[in-house]
Design brief:
This protein is mostly beta strands. It is built from one helix and four strands, in the order αββββ.
């Protein structure tokens, strides 16, 4: 992993910052190696802990599941 990836982990949104209805960018399980992001609207939060090193896991409104990498500004 390069240093850029390590710095990104420090900026991962916390569970308290994520709400259903928010537009976010997630990385799906199959895209973790490539880092391809998927954008969508949060249906529900699946991670119970306040933080996670790879991002808080959410389900999007279309049913896809991924870990939040960024919150998209409204």
């Amino acid at each position: 992993m390069n240093a850029g990836h390590e710095n990104d982990k420090l900026n991962m949104p916390k569970r308290s910052e994520i709400q259903p209805g928010m537009r976010v960018q997630v990385v799906e399980k199959q895209n973790q190696r490539s880092g391809v992001l998927t954008e969508g609207v949060v249906r529900r939060i699946l991670t119970n802990s306040p933080t996670h090193p790879h991002g808080i896991k959410v389900m999007l409104e279309d049913g896809r599941v991924g870990r939040v990498q960024a919150i998209v500004a409204p």
